[in-house]
Amino acid sequence: MGSVTHTSDAAIARPLVLGIESSCDETAVALVRGDGAIIAQAIASQEAEHAPYGGVVPEIAARAHAERVAPMIAHVMAEAGLSLDEVDAIAATAGPGLIGGVMVGLVSAKALAMAAGKPLLAINHLEGHALSPRLADAGLGFPYLLLLVSGGHCQILAVEGVGQYRRLATTIDDALGEAFDKTAKLLGLGYPGGPAVERLALQGNPKAVPLPRPLKGSPEPHFSFAGLKSAVMRAVESGAHAPADIAASFQQAAVECLIDRLQFALTRAGPSPALVVAGGVAANRAVRAALEAFASANAMRFTAPPLALCTDNAAMIAWAGCERLANEGWTRDGDFAGDPLDFVARPRWPLDASADTVRGAGVKA
Ligand code: KG4
Ligand code: ZN
User: Fold this and answer.
1) Number of domains into which the chain is organized
2) I need a surface site. Which of 5, 95, 148, 283 has the fewest CB within 10 A?
3) What are phi and psi of 309, to 5 degrees?
4) CA pseudo-torsion sign 348, 352, 358, 363
5) Which residues contact ligand 1 via a Cβ below 6 A?
């Protein structure tokens, strides 16, 4: 017996979600449809504002988000040629992140949701990163092993479904993106550091500078990058090495740590059909190449979102909203409530609430 298909099924399966991201230094707005089409999007980086300080200044970030978010929402809606009435839900990052910025995006979403009578979806920024590979790769099903590597996080998660995340590892001190940013600062490459270190590393010898591989081979599952960062500092201060060699050797050490910890996670948690990478550091080509080789050696499908979806963006937030609607039984004609309008912005919000806390907590944003 075939199932009965109602004419409205296709439409119901394709909610349209407006997403807002403002948890760090990118203000972003996107309109995404349930079938993965990005209808319109805008992103404004605050790089220029923060560059003189060598890192993100929370107060400056919050003000910049507040100035930009409303015109950007208007711009995205105009570009799509749609009104808020035609949107099915309003999603915004509700944490974790710099609280001033998160509040700007979340409050904007609440106002729109209230004014238009649409459900609010308060999205965990990390869930946005975790599900973004499914936006880019429609064939990627659950479960998969996720390496989330960004400026604030370095985690391995078993993603078993929407809302089902098991943390297998996290950093006990610095996130990898943070280590890239510090290395860039030490080498005088400015901010943001990751792409600059990657560029300089292309001209260097990855074996030239002896650097540690913290926790490599360790029986605890976690990451650590503080010791690597300190070793980079000593290498810079010694004056004995070319900056390109330091950049290349640092990147090599970081990649080896990632692969070692992934191997450990796989051994411990058992095989997984797919490996997925997300977060800003996933933009790094050396990291991607090593992960691709690791996946292939372990007979895993490998998915990395396109570069623009790796770093912070609003399409991943809108998409996480689409995934939640599909998972939580939303229908266009139903009375889907969404999250309460008094949902409070969260500076910290682990994806796996049951995960043990680790020595250094490791989560900065
Ligand atoms: O996910 P993301 O945009 O923001 C959050 O931290 O949530 O990640 C930003 C981080 C920064 O630390 C940045 O230096 C790093 O990702 N990053 C890179 C590259 N592009 C961005 N790190 C290494 N290589 C890159 N190409
Ligand atoms: Zn992020």
Assistant:
1) 2
2) 5
3) -95, -10
4) negative
5) 24, 150-152, 177-178, 180-181, 192-195, 198, 279-281, 283-284, 311-312
| Per-residue model confidence as pLDDT tens digits over 310-345 | 999 999 999 999 999 999 999 988 889 999 999 999
Residues 132, 66 share a domain? yes
Residues 157 and 253 in one domain: yes
Question: Which tokens in the block code for residue 213?
Answer: 């591989």
Ranges of the chain with pLDDT below 70: 1-13, 359-365
Q: Are residues 195 and 285 located together in one domain of the fold?
A: yes
Output the CA 252–ligand 1 centroid distance in Å.
16
Does one domain contain both 165 and 294?
A: yes
Domain around 27: 1-137+306-365
- The sheet carrying 16-21 orders its strands as 38-45, 26-33, 16-21, 89-95, 120-124
Q: 234-293, pLDDT tens digit by residue? A: 999 999 999 999 999 999 999 999 999 999 999 999 999 999 999 999 999 999 999 999
Three-state SS for 42? Answer: strand
Q: Three-class SS of residue 129?
A: helix
Same domain, 359 and 281: no
Give the CATH number for residue 349.
3.30.420.40
The answer to whether residues 300 and 310 belong to one domain is: no
Residue 150 CA, ligand 1 centroid: distance in Å: 5
In the numeric block, which tokens belong to residue 10? 């296709």
**Which of 304, 333, 350 corresponds to the end of one domain?**
304
Nearest atom in ligand 1 to the alpha carbon of residue 176 is 12
Which of 180, 186, 187, 364 is the pocket-test mutation for ligand 1 (most atoms within 8 Å of CB)?
Answer: 180
Identify the residue whose C-alpha is closest to ligand 1 atom 13. Answer: 194
Structural domain ending residue among the three candidates 253, 288, 304: 304
Q: Which two tokens stand for residue 49?
A: 């504002």
How many angstroms separate the CA atoms of 25 and 309, rounded? 15
